[in-house]
Each structure stands twice: as C-alpha cells, then as structure tokens.
Input
Amino acid sequence: MNAPSPALVAPRPERLRLVGQRRQLLAVMHQRLMFGMLVYAGIVAIIALRLLYLAAFGDHAGRKEGLTALIPERGDIVDRNGDPLARTIDAWTIAIHPNKVIGDKLALARRLAQLMPEQNEEQYFALLKSGKPFFYLRRRASPSLVEAVNALGEPGLAIQREPDRLYPQTTLAAHVLGFTDIDGHGAAGIERAFDKQLSDTSSRGEPVTLSIDSRIQQALEHELGSAMSQFSAIGAAGVVMDVHTGEVLAMTSMPTFNPNAAGQGTPEQIFNRATLGVFELGSTFKPFTLAMAMDSGVVSGPGQIYNCPNVLPAYGHLIHDTHPFGRQCSVAEIMMESSNIGMGQIANQLGITRQKAWLKKMGFLDKPEIELRERGRPLTPGSRWGPFETMTIGYGQGIAVAPLQLAMGYATLFDNGVYHPPTILKRGPHNPLPAGRRVFSEETSYKMRALLRLVVVKGTGKKADAPGYRIGGKTGTAQKIINGHYSKTVNLTSFAGVFPMDDPRYVIVVMLDEPKATKDTYGFTTAGWNAAPVVSRTVSRIAPMLGIIPDTNREPNMAEVLPFVQEAKKAAKQSSDKD
Amino acid sequence: MSSRSFRSVFMVASCAGAALGCYLVSLRVASERAQLEEVETKIVLAQRDMRVLQTEIGTRGRLSQLERWNAGAFALSAPAADQLLKGGFELARLAQPEHKVDFQAPVVLASAPAPARPSPMVEPEMDDSGAPTAVAPNALLHEASLKTEMREVPARSVVKLPLTAATSTDKPAIAAKPAHAKSVEKPGLAAAHPSAKKDAVKTVSAPPKKTVDKPVVAAAKPVTKPVRIARVDPLAPLPAKHSGQSRETTADR
Output
C-alpha cells in the first residue's frame, strides 16, 4: 500500500516488475478480503434477523403442541341428559417384542403365566421363542397388572397406553349403542350408524346426543329382565317413545350383551329384537284396524253392533276367540275382550285395498325410519294377501313387524293421527322435528282413547293399570309358528300402552318371547298375565321422571264407551253385591 | 460544536434504545403468551383428569349397580300416586285438624235460613295458596225460604273454644241438600266429574288439550263449590271424646 513513489528513486526494471506484480496481488487480496467480509457480514445479518424474527413472532422452546383442546380419539355418545353412554379412554396395553427379550425366556414365561393365566407357560415360552417381532399380551389391562408386569423389568415388554372404547353403563342400551371392532370402527348400533361423525376429526369433539334417557332405559330393562326371568322367556323387547316427537326414550332387547366385551356376546344376544326382529304381534294390531275402519266410515263408533258367535267360519277357515261372546256385541266389547271374530268382520268390511293403503300410510309395509342400520323388513302375506288374510291381519296375525314399528303406530294413532318418523337422536337444533304426515283423523284419535282405556279398566289388560297414570293399551297374545303351524301352547305376548290416556304423551311397548306359565299366573301364558304387569311396574317408575303427575280423578271420557259394554254392567253389579 | 459532533452518537444511542424498547415489549408479549399457553395446557390436562375421574365414578356408580344396591340395601321404590301432592293447598289439607261432631252442642234446625241478602254467591278472591281471603263465612251460605231469628250462632260457644271455632268457619259442615244437589245424589260420580266437564267442552269446540298441566288450579276450585247449610252448629265446640262417631261426617267431606 505504501509503495515508494517512482519519481524519487529510479527503480531497477526487475524491481519495477516486482512492484507491479505486488500491487496486482494486493488488489486481488483486497477484493477477496472484501468479499469474505461481505459474506461474513451477510451471515451475521441473516442470523441477527432470524433472531429478531423469532423473538418477535417465534415459538418458545417449552411450547407443547396439540393440547389446546380436548378432542377424544372417537366422539362420545351421551344420553339426552348428557350422561355418557360411550367414551374413549386411554387404556393400558401390554405387549411383547420377543426379539428384544434379554433375560431368561423360560423364567419370563413362567412369571407371565402367573400374572396372566389366560395362557400357560408353555404357550408363553413358545411365543417368546417364535422369533416374531410383536405380540399383544393383554389389552385394557388393569393398573395393578401393569404395575406387576412393569416390575419384571424386562426391556422386551412394551407397556403402552392406547385409546379404547368404554361403555360406562355396561349392558345398558347395548343394542342401541352397538360396539366397535378392534380397529375402533363401529360394528353395530349407533357406533355403526354414526361411525363417520364419531371418527371424523372435525366433528368428533361434539358428542352424539341420543334421545335415550338412561334412567328410563334402566327402569325398562330392569322390569323387563325380571319378568323375563320370572316367566322363563327366551327373549324380550321393549320400547318407550314420545308420542309427539317420535323420540325413542328407551329401547331394549333381551338377552343382552356387554359392549365392552362384545366378542363374548352370542349372535342371539347381539340380535336386536326391537328393530331388526319382526314378530306377529297379535291383538295389539286391533286398535289400528278399528281406527282404519272408523276413518273409512265402516264403523260409526263404539256402539256399532256385530254378531259374535262362538266360532266364525270364514273363507274355509274357522276363527276362534279366547273369550267367546256367543251373542251380539258392540265394538267397545270387541276391543275390551279382544275378540278376533268381531275384529275379523270389521277388517273384512274394510277390504284388502283399503287395508293395504292404510298400512302403507302408517309405514307398516316398509322398514322403520330410524337412524340405526339394524332394521327389519316387515313380513306380509305378499301375493297371498286375500280376503282371509285381510281378516287375520285385522287381528294381528299374518303380518310381522318390529316392536319399534308397533310403538310408532301407537304414537301415530295418539298424536292426533299424525305420523312422525321415530328417531334415536334428541330433537333439537341438530335434529329438528319434521313436519308430520296425517294418517288418521283427529276425531278417530280422540275416540280411541276411551276404547283403549276401557281395555285396561275392564278388559284383558287390567294388570297393566298403574293407579293415577291413566294407562290405556292393548294386550296381544300371538301364537308362535312351530314347524309351520301355529302352536297352541307357545306364545309371544306383548302389550302396547299409552299414558296418560286423557292427553297421550308416551307409548310403551313390551314384548315377551315364549313366556311360561307360573303359579302366580294360574297357568295362563297370555299377555294380560305377563306383559301387562311389566307395563304397570315400568310406568309407575318412569312416569314421575317424565313429569306426569298422577291423578286418580282424571280419566279420558269413558262415557263414550261405557254405555255399550254389557259385561261391565253385570260385573259391576256382581262386585257391588259382593261389597 | 460538541453537540454537533456527538449528534451521530445520540442518533445511534436513541435508535438502539428504541430498538431495545421494541424488543422488550415483544419479549414481554411472548412471555405473557407463554404463560397463557401454560395455563391453557393446565386447564386441558385438568379437564382430561376430570374426564377420567368422571368416567371412573360413572362406571363404578352405573345405574345397574345402583339398582342392585337399591334392591339389596335401600329398597326404595317409586312414589305411589297418592304420595304426590298437587300444590300447597293439598299440603295444607293434610295439616287440617280433624272435624269432630259434638252431640251436646245446641241443635240448630237444618232449615234455619240466613238473613236475606241479594246475591250471596260471589266468587271469593283467591290468594296465592288458593284459599279464599276476606270472605265472611256468611257470604258462602245459601238462603232458605223460611226465616227464623234463631239461626245466629250463640256467642258463648265461641268463648269456650275460639281456636277450633275459627278454623271451622271456613267449612259450614253437614248440611241439608244444597241448591245444586245433583252431584250429591250420585256420590260415586266424583271421579267422573272432570271428564264429564271435558265432554261438555268438547261438544262446543275442540277437545281441551293441556288440562293435565294445570292440576293446581283444578284442585283449588272445589273450595268454593260445596256450600252447604249447617245441620249442626258450625261454631260449636268440638271436644275430642266423640272421635269414634265422627267418621261418617268426616268422610262426607
């Protein structure tokens, strides 16, 4: 840089050459230095800017991701009051990597067999020797077992937490809820019907709210279960439904299973008799036939008289009654004593075309409209639907529907004749009440109140009465088909009730499959002896929860039907004589 | 001179100060945000713990388990129809002293009339509990055709037992046949009465729908209805010795 000026000393030519070279060299060096400095400064500037950016907008080191909201692995299912019916929990899972086991395998197999005795030590040893990479030993292990396994100190054992589906109420509403398979996807019930909603990340934070009320469900299941064991029935089903909204408040099928261990349930237990099973429900169909006849103008009112002989020959068959009149009888008496002969004649007057049209309108010829996938298609005579079949369908034989559909029919009949599709989800902003479809006229609906109350007050359903709750309803005893013939002894009994009858709000349907006679029923297996008491007991438990105030002074207008009941007068006189 | 030469230094210093200030603000914001996140995380963790505990409690106290305990230990059952009252009026009725008849009380003729009054039947005003307020018991009495001056209650009986007498004034007890005697002729029709009323409404217009929801009003109504003239002196003393014979009269209520 400080080169001597060329004017003072005349340099030698070599030296001059050297100076020129050095200057060149220096210039290059300066350039390189400058470049290196710029690069260095640039890097420093980038780091500084990055630091500033991170200080202003960046995350700090201790930040935990993914915990800002509690979203379960799979959505909850809750009842209408918000009580959980299905939840996903973190369960302990015990697994083993046989290749990573470093201890004595025989000793380990021995200890494992002690702790988890579902396999013996040879099996555990074979498993450890198999050389495979991974085995589950136990899913949903208890904490004490996890602690004991952990204490073995074997690094090949893997103890992890995995999401697992838990049904806190165990068997309660098992058929409604369904269950999930091993991959966590719904395999039955609500779990299957709403699988997408329950597993989708955007929607699983919100629980699926059912219309089921777990207290009512429990009452129904308990009463039905005790009746089933009392009468040694092979199965049972029950439905409680809101008349005005179509909400299913309780629905059960028995025998039941535990969805927490659905793999242990037999097909018989997992089968949902309330929606998937279709049954010939017998006389519980009679109110529909009568309502159809009233609306079509075939029957003018409860006072119309029919000839009710002991046996009615019709189209080459004979129709029998359990309580034969053997005289003229009114429509009110036909309902009260559940006369097949009388109802058959009414159905015959109605005719095939009209009967089919009515049944179609009520939704009895199609699968029930409910969110569950387990829905049974009703069985009808189909092409054999002749005049005699019309008569038998009139009193409930020859057509098989699900118990839920029967409840739906009663709800239609007593919601002033308007049909609302049944639903298993709570009515609300997410599931608004659709506009109904008028099936029966309001007047017919009103007239049926007193008729069905009469059945409980004076007829076959006396044991269904719960004091103060004004239950009205109809018993149904259907003979089961055994080897192609209607059995005389094996029955399927049901009771369809509505309460309170002076302003119907709830429907209850109860069905018992093959109940046996007991000492208390004096050898009877008809619905009045086994299904009706279940209704009485259940209603007296659930009605206070449903907000129905018992009132022994309130009744539907019985003056509409009582004048047409002959037997009742006699019975009343007898009872007053006794007093 | 000096200020001018230090100007650049001041500029640098103030710039650095401003930058530092900005940085401190942002640091403060970041640390606040970090704390908030920490709290949020704690909340979520607490929620998760609560969920786990709730699930555990719910599973241990599931309804079938409660039912089993109830069947085994507590034996509680649903209330029966007569265990539920429809309002304060029915509750008050339970506490009402039992009405007893005194056979030694002065006999008052059944046909004894009250003094003439143009309109004896006025709807008494109700207070909250449904009981009539400020209505003289005489206003509830029906008139009879025959008039004697002996009807007025003797004052000495009031002196003897003023408390019982005061309560019994509400209810002039057993009477001769009242003016609207029809419902009394058929005692069993008490139960059928509301439905008959409903029928009457129905013939006029649509059937009444929500009558179930207002039982308190319906229960309160009969207070004004059974106006009967006393066969026995209503203000007479009511000693307890004839409790056995009083059954039929109390049942009449």
